[in-house]
Amino acid sequence: MAGIYIHIPFCKQKCSYCDFHFSTNLTNRQTVVNTICNEIELKKTVLPNNEKIATIYVGGGTPSLLFEEELAQILEAIYKNYRLEEKIEFTLECNPDDINIGKLKILKNNGVNRLSIGVQSFFDEDLKFFNRAHNQQQAEKSILLSQDAGINNITIDLIYNSPQLTLKKWEHNLDKFIQLNIPHLSAYTLTVEPKTALYHLVKTKQTVIPSDEQAIEQFNLLIEKVKQVGLIHYEISNFGKEGFFSQHNSNYWKGENYLGFGPSAHSFIKNNTSQKRSWNIANNTKYTKAIQQNLPFFEEEIIDETTAYNEYILTRLRTIWGVDMGFIKKTFSSEISNHFFAALATYKNTHLITISENKLTLAQEGIFLTDKITSDLFFV
Q1: Percentage helix, strand, coil, to 5, in the chain?
Q2: pTM for the whole thing?
Q3: Residue 378 has what DSSP assignment?
Q4: Is residue 45 classed exposed, middle or buried when 0-12, 13-18 and 19+ CB atoms within 10 A define those classes?
Q5: What domains, with CATH codes, occur in the chain?
Q6: From CA 261, how far away is CA 38, in angstroms rounded?
Q7: What is the pLDDT of residues 242-263, one digit of tens each?
Q8: Ranges under pLDDT 50 in the chain
Q9: What region, left, alpha or beta, does residue 230 occupy, with left being phi > 0 and alpha being psi -120 to 50 degrees?
Q10: Phi/psi at 16 (nearest 5 deg)?
């Protein structure tokens, strides 16, 4: 069940916390779209056994900046060069300020059946701090308009543990999410990435990121609230009602094949004999020139056994599907397998993990120690 990811590397403005690849200069947008379509055709034989595509995810950047003809052009290239499952999950990331009745009609006409709306907060002061282009009113209106248009498979992003976010405000954000009857939520603790405006603010002591204790308090409230309305905590940062999990992102965590198109996009391909990862040039101009001139536009690596094991631990431990201990023993060398079980033994009498039916998952108390537990289980 392969997936396609398309990276649209354009935004109106730069959010204070964002370190993804994008440009606020939109003048060469059509050139980049043309090049993405070229790449889509170039990679049409990469999937083993002409595997069918089950999910399409258009991310960025801000894909909702695309004109209808640009989105249609990209999709035409996909339909022409790949086999698609009869029913696919087709997600497009949107900013609330881009959503209107006309845009929603365009998206539906092009087959989009799932929206990921970058809300982040329902408070204007938080949105200004994040340097978002929308306000609270637009955030709520975008969701209501999408539902009225018949797009009910919606997810929103919310950020917690930001400098201005009290527990009371965080509870209001969660209550608003619940009130709007949205079937999926991605909730992320604010992280400080190098080369971002937020990093500069923290480094120059113009702002302070709250303590881990506050993050845990807000996370525990998040868990409590979403459980009350039947959402399943299926990945560390993701919560969905039954039938509304992100199929595309779940495929990442389950190690399924995916193709990435556009500047900075990643691909992962495995077959019976090998696993391979590649990543495109993270520069719009260099990416387009390389493809236009038939030059290398990506780097790649063959994933060895150690890397494959470590990545299995890294991705599966984040999810409700967990680490299959039988799979570890069957798939990897005795040296790696013995290391795994020895490292795991140090956690067996703690409240940080759960082992059931030969499956290892994190307990709620262990989620904030995910990095340490994962690191201990890694084979290095």
Answers
A1: 45, 25, 35
A2: 0.96
A3: -
A4: exposed
A5: 2-251 (3.20.20.70), 304-380 (1.10.10.920)
A6: 10
A7: 999 999 999 999 999 999 999 9
A8: none
A9: left
A10: -65, -25
